[in-house]
Design a protein that fits this description.
Elements: E1 4-11, H1 15-29, E2 33-40, H2 47-54, E3 60-64, H3 71-81, E4 86-89, H4 100-109, E5 115-119, E6 126-127, H5 133-145, E7 160-163, H6 180-187, E8 193-197, E9 199-200, H7 212-229, H8 231-261, H9 265-288, H10 297-325, H11 327-331, H12 333-356
Parallel strand pairs: 1-2, 1-4, 2-3, 5-8, 6-9
Antiparallel strand pairs: 4-7, 5-7
Helix pairs in contact: 1-2, 7-8, 8-9, 9-10, 10-12
The structure holds guanosine-5'-diphosphate-alpha-D-mannose (GDD) and manganese (II) ion (MN).
The site of guanosine-5'-diphosphate-alpha-D-mannose has 24 residues, from strand 1, strand 2 and helix 3.
Length: 360
């Protein structure tokens, strides 16, 4: 087998790992047509000199990136430069076994896979014993959160391969942080994803850049991916969050109006509704429906207040009807209470999405 392979490796301060890394890759690919692209974010160590020397003996290119730093963006830059028909992405810190590359490319070349993951969590896969409980838990939670996006045991892996022609248009890719493999699987059209077991080694030299900021970035990235994969459901969810926030505003204004201004409770109730509905309008305009048509604020605000009032009437009205007309709900009014909230909420969402924040 002689394939055209581009191995893309994001690097930042990996000078000590470069020699063993490039040797390990060449050991398994020397009989093939391959290139290694080191996508380096201008490391302040001596990566550049080492690469310079290595490139005399190996098909190696160092691409020094001065802007848009970050792992995932570095990898995307690599896609633009890659010459090979097969793209392999791996880390520089020797965590990923180079020998798996051959099997990955073989699966792609024979059409037995469209996307191959070097996986720590399939049978035969392993993690170096030194991972502490925190990192295991972290990894499990991260994977669980992505489970509605991709059916794979290790979608977080930074070791994966695919055919270059299957790469989704680069303009559609906008990952934040580390999870470029996940981004590709969600946005690309890879029918058959195969996971090969790997032994994920702990890095010996240098240190991991995965920190709390990256975890926060991961949540932001997930948010984007869910919006991409489930646009309507994400809107509904976001609308619900805004609604919950509105309930807090409602309660605070209702109580404060009585405590601070000795307002009668009925007045406080009406005033707090206006505050809550206005807050909901503002947050929905800024978040849930931020990509919808920009309409004049006052008109849209009034429209939102009226649909919210209607939702409120349906909420309380259905509660009233259920508890007075159906004996069951007379005995279990709390169920009627939640049905009312649900009906009001859906009506509000429908009207907000189809009318108040209409797209065209
Ligand atoms: N260009 C560039 N820019 N490269 C970077 C940057 C950056 O800002 N940050 C990290 N890298 C490079 C590192 O030099 C290394 O080659 C690779 O990306 C992985 O970085 P590590 O810091 O070693 O990450 P990790 O071991 O914590 O995370 C790895 O495992 C995770 C799963 O546990 C990565 O493969 C993640 O993608 C993966 O999700
Ligand atoms: Mn690492």
């Amino acid at each position: 087998m002689n394939e055209n392979i581009s191995v893309i490796i994001p690097t930042f301060c990996e000078a000590d790992n470069l020699i063993p890394l490039i040797q390990a890759i060449d050991d398994v690919l020397s009989s093939q047509n391959y290139e290694v692209l080191l996508m380096d974010d201008n490391s302040p160590d001596n990566s550049a000199e080492i690469t310079q020397q290595l490139s005399q003996n190996y098909p190696l290119k160092l691409i020094t990136r001065l802007h848009n730093h970050g792992l995932a963006l570095a990898v995307i830059d690599g896609f633009k430069q890659a010459q090979g028909d097969y793209i392999v992405v791996m880390d520089a810190d020797l965590s990923h076994p180079a020998k798996t590359i051959v099997e990955m490319v073989d699966l792609l070349a024979t059409n037995r896979a469209d996307f191959v993951i070097g996986s720590r969590f399939v049978k035969g896969g392993k993690i170096d014993g030194s991972w502490h409980l925190g990192r295991h838990l972290n990894s499990k939670i991260a994977t669980f959160l992505s489970s509605l996006l991709v059916k794979a045991k290790d979608p977080m892996s930074g070791f994966f391969a695919f055919r270059k022609i299957d790469c989704p248009p680069l303009k559609n890719l906008n990952p934040i942080g580390y999870k470029i493999g996940l981004e590709l699987m969600v946005k690309g059209n890879f029918k058959h994803i195969v996971e090969l077991p790997i032994f994920f080694k702990k890095r010996t030299f240098g240190k991991s850049k995965l920190n709390t900021k990256e975890q926060w970035n991961y949540l932001r990235h997930l948010h984007r991916l869910y919006q991409f994969a489930y646009p309507r459901l994400s809107e509904l969810f976001q609308f619900g969050l805004v609604g919950l926030n509105g309930m807090v505003v409602d309660l605070c204004v209702y109580l404060l109006a009585q405590w601070l201004f000795a307002s009668p409770h009925m007045i406080a109730r009406i005033v707090s509704f206006w505050f809550a509905a206005s807050a909901n309008w503002l947050f929905n305009r800024k978040t849930t429906f931020k990509t919808r048509l920009r309409k004049p604020k006052i008109k849209q605000w009034l429209a939102f207040i009226s649909t919210s009032s209607l939702g409120f009437v349906v909420n309380v009205g259905s509660y009233y009807l259920l508890t007075t007309q159906i004996l069951f709900f007379y005995h279990y009014p709390l169920i009627a209470f939640f049905i009312g909230i649900g009906l009001g909420f859906f009506l509000n969402f429908l009207l907000a999405s189809k009318w108040v924040f209409k797209s065209t």
